[in-house]
Structures
1.
Amino acid sequence: MENINKDIASARRTLAAEIEVLQIMSDGLGNDFITALDVMENIKGRIIVTGMGKSGHIGKKMAATLASTGSPSFFVHPGEASHGDLGMITKDDVVLAISNGGESTELSDILLYCKRYGITLIAMTRNPDSTLGKAGDYIFKLPDNGEACPLGLAPTSSTTATLALGDAIAIALLERKGFSKEDYKQRHPGGKLGAILQKVSDLMHVGNDLPFVKIGTSMQEAIIIMTEKSLGCVGVVDNTGSLIGVITDGDLRRHMGENFMSAKVEDIMTENPKTIQPNVLAAEALALMNDKKITSLFVEKDKVPVGLLHLHDCLRAGVA
């Protein structure tokens, strides 16, 4: 129990220190923050994030968050930059270099490159008087109140502050640009991709939901079945259970007349309707429906109808 209490006390001290650093940083935001945001919002190119060690790890996440929220960005490792990746940085870009102390020697080639070619450099550091701070055209100031680590060595509070400041930058830019949910979806197609990879069998109606009538059935009865199943069509099967035709809402309108209700389904149906296999991708089924200008497809397996896929099923599942 004593060890547990010590562990909880230690964790709380760490969290308290990191909460404190976030509050200090929040209170210290001012015109420098706004000016640097102005630059990042209006560049023609991309935001190139760089940093070494723990700052580099945070920088990778920062670049990913910026890119996914409407600000094109990627991470360049300082070591790789010195061996050719400097060529990834153009005059239209802005470089966001991260170093808590501001004296990471690995950043020197990137700093020189920015100065040589007039590339805007934004420094993110706690020390404006450091090499990085002095090289920067603009500064995002990090708090200077030590680490949560009791040794004062392991990056803890400083990396928390850097990560949080990166999020604050990304969200501020997002709001400035009017970035919408639809914009976000376009940059995160994972869920949509999952929907597109669904098969017909994942979405189709089966069993008692299916609207079927046998050949020889009156249209009056067929309309009752169509109404009950609410899928906008009814399939016509022969005595062996094979699908031989389909009647849609459009067919009803085209054939409406004096003797319509007493007509047989085979007199109204469209013969040899388009069908699809259950193992076909839902996206392919949707493309077929769009191409044929129809709203539903009966699903067949071994020439036996086993399901029905409606256009609305695809749309609800995000297949588009």
2.
Amino acid sequence: METEKSMTISLSDTAAGERLDKALAAAVPTMSRERLKTLVQAGKLAGAGGVVWDPATKLKGGEVFTLTVPAPRPAGNAAQDIPLHIQFEDDHLLVVDKPAGLVVHPAAGNLDGTLVNALLHHCAGRLSGIGGVARPGIVHRIDKDTSGLLVVAKTDPAHEGLAAQFARHTVERRYTAVVGGVPVPPAGRIEGALARSTANRQKMAIVSAGRGKHAITHYRTVQAFRGAAQVECRLETGRTHQIRVHMASIGHALLGDAVYGRTPGRLAPVLKELAFARQALHAATLGFQHPVTKEILSFESKLPADMLALIGALAAEAE
């Protein structure tokens, strides 16, 4: 049975001024930068002054560290034959069109029947493990009740390359949403740092910049109805519940979103008639540079039937 291993990493003087995780990745080419970052954050790296927790620590140069690498653990999630709509797949990654209602990764209350379980079956073990055993291959995620596009890494180099693009905010992500009210002005930029709400840990909230993660959403109105609108939201950053919180903050919560807004009374019968019981949000466009081949890739996902029906009903009511 394998046990954890320790390795000594000696950095050169030329590492002065560099980020710790970057220098470690150069010194340990057999491990990805994301994997090393995860180990640092788990308290597995020690220097002359003790445990180092921050991967962004600036180096003085010439440091010597001891890295403890845990023994590999098999993924605890069951592979399940759950149908997947795959738009693209090669040896390095795949792009999945997720239906509303499918949870991305196992968590309390959703231990199976998730996208991860489906991926474990489809890929038969060929998934990146950088994200940890609970989320193999998962580079980013969308909410259970949001539909649309996700990219999944099959290899560690692909995972690292994609994660770097998300960190640099160079991945194109456009969402279609249906909101209550008609935004004025019809297009704009919403900026507000996000963090867990202190009143309800299940919710995110706009907080002061020092407390939360920087977040920017660009929106534009595609078509206006009576008391509602179809909007396109482009993410400049990608934070948990970002579009839902940002649109609610300007008085235009997503229709069907029981967490961040209430459906305007006159529209409630429309949603009830359609049995529309989720936030009206769809990840419609995903674009990025392939982390291995360097090809520029762009994908589009058509609106699912429930959102098409909602938009159609609102359009008919407005006539």
3.
Amino acid sequence: MTDIAVIGLGFVGLTTALGLSEKGYRVYGYDADPEKMSCYRNGIVPFHEPGLKPALNRHINQRFILADCLEDAVRPAQIIFYCVGTPRSADGSVDLSYILEATGQMLRAIDRTDFRVLTYKSTIPPGTVRDTITPFVEKLGYRVGCDVGVASNPEFLAEGRAWDDFLNPDRIVIGADDERSTHLLKEVYARFGAPVHTVSPTTAEFIKYLSNTLLATLISFANEMAMLADQVGDVEIARAFKILHQDKRWSGAPASMTSYVYPGCGFGGYCLPKDTEAMYMQGKAKGFEAQGLRHVLQVNERVKDFVVEKVAAETPASHTIGVLGLAFKPNSDDVRDTPTRAIIQRLLDRGYSKIIAYDPLANDVFDRAYHLPITYAGSLREIAQAADVFILLTAWDEFKRNRDLFAGKKLYDFRYCLS
């Protein structure tokens, strides 16, 4: 049986490690964050993702083995999945330093007697394996395709349903230039029963960005049209988009796809803002101005101003504003790049000093991440009593079920989910 290592045990890495364990593989996991490793050893998943905690309890110290160091994780493994962070650099491009550091550590820890496939699940710009990782590996004395394989294997996991997405993928993309790496990865994924596409590493990297930038584009299209409808006036915005979704040309697409062509207050999370900007910056570095992507990013900022201006035009600064929703999407505690942060900051900048917020999952996470001078409600009923005006920024079912709590008070539904 092929042994596997997963380096980086965040949202993608833990899902990957546990999903492969669920399919019967022995998986060695390692993360450089000792606090995260301690959580996992104690059966705790330090972020909200349905399905992962039961899977961790099923497989920890059985098929899923937490290594004490990176070397212990990679030495037994024939396939090594890299799921380490690729954060934004100051200029909007992707920081590859964590990827290269982990790769270098691994190559210095192994002997060359066994062929290993270095497989990158981290989202990396098209051409990274070809132009950066392969030269880096060869500079350390390894022959790519002979001593080691290098492959791109992007993930397509949506927060809130990542466990099912991993176990039941709609497609698997393997980007490798040598037959041995391709064969080993195809063997691993044979247990998943999904279409497997073998392409070049650059094509695999591009497919991931193609997916995320399309989703970002759909969201910005919907937001721009909703802002236009607001200017036109007398448009039932939520109904208009729901009727749009009934167009038969959408048939056959996953039902969740329509959620991206629906207005809100901007896209957030780790992937869409970072990946869209990275793709735009990569084109710019090559001398190509991707006007469409630039527009997508501009609309994503403009819609936050639209929210603030709409509230400010009708709400005295002395009023207490209740913010409903802090996570960037419902059923998640992820607040990375959440539009709510920018909207609250812009309200504070306009003199709204009395802001109270509530999210079913993300209150503490949001407070630790941003340290904004606002207060937090412990329940929906508490915020309903405390605020004068409400802005709904995350479409939690709890808000939809309890809209009667806000009767008689002004509520701005910027997710168009109450209609």
